[in-house]
Amino acid sequence: VTFWVVVPAAGVGSRMQADRPKQYLALAGRTVMEQTLQVFLDHPGLKGLTVSLAAEDPYWPGLSCSHDPRIWRADGGRERADSVLNALALLRAKGAEALDWVLVHDAARPNLAASDLQHLLASLADDPLGGLLAVPARDTLKRAGEDGRVEATVDRSVIWHALTPQMFRLGTLHDALAGALEAGATVTDEASAIEWAGGHPRLVEGRADNLKITRPEDLHWLAQRWQS
Ligand code: CTP
Ligand code: MG
């Protein structure tokens, strides 16, 4: 399977409370961003990769991968979905076609295993729509009432955590994101836009350690794992 990649990286990382956006913090001798991109750059099916960056991003030009001819830079947008849409438009300009596969992956998710990437690609290559890496819920789940007491225990067997990459055809993804944004729908990932448009993305079980760095303890956890 051949594919394009979009990495939205225009967030400010407010929950991380660091001196720079979390994708530019250090992890195992490189930046989080460089670690994130490596698994895609190592894959023979990669046709090209677009990173969406904030307008005044002073960090990207300093990374060695900023000179990689397979990587292009798009403008970040107000919301993550805007950043992804800008990147899809750039891919079109670079020759990507509506039926080509696009994988969207968070810049702040540096621990995607090559085997999970391969599993996603293999699982969805013949799928009519596409889907996403996800992990089944592990803990017992409670629905809270307004008084902060348990109202009910939720059936865990049908609940999954959505991860990235999320893999869809370029044209389908573009139209779903544009439509959902236009309608003011809540779009927190690519799959939610596809769902808004009436699609049912396939859940592909991945590894739970493909975590998104959101708070300081996430980075500490990954750094420790990578050390040993
Ligand atoms: N992102 C983006 N454009 C935006 C907002 C987010 O490209 N307007 C990217 C982030 O850079 C990140 C990914 O989307 O790689 C997931 O978003 P999130 O984890 O929420 O990152 P931040 O928005 O940077 O963090 P926070 O919400 O804590 O400010
Ligand atoms: Mg955010």
From TrEMBL:
EC numbers, comma separated: 2.7.7.60
Keywords: Isoprene biosynthesis, Nucleotidyltransferase, Transferase
Keyword Transcription: no
Leading EC class: transferase
Classification via Pfam families: IspD
Site positions (Transition state stabilizer): R15, K22
Pathway per the UniProt entry: Isoprenoid biosynthesis; isopentenyl diphosphate biosynthesis via DXP pathway; isopentenyl diphosphate from 1-deoxy-D-xylulose 5-phosphate: step 2/6
Annotated site, Positions MEP for the nucleophilic attack, chain positions: R156, K212
Catalyzed reactions per annotation: 2-C-methyl-D-erythritol 4-phosphate + CTP + H(+) = 4-CDP-2-C-methyl-D-erythritol + diphosphate
Gene Ontology molecular-function annotations: 2-C-methyl-D-erythritol 4-phosphate cytidylyltransferase activity
Database matches in InterPro entries: IspD, IspD/TarI, IspD/TarI_cytidylyltransf_bact, ISPD_synthase_CS, Nucleotide-diphossugar_trans
Protein's job: Catalyzes the formation of 4-diphosphocytidyl-2-C-methyl-D-erythritol from CTP and 2-C-methyl-D-erythritol 4-phosphate (MEP).
Family membership: Belongs to the IspD/TarI cytidylyltransferase family. IspD subfamily.
Protein name: 2-C-methyl-D-erythritol 4-phosphate cytidylyltransferase
Organism: Stutzerimonas tarimensis
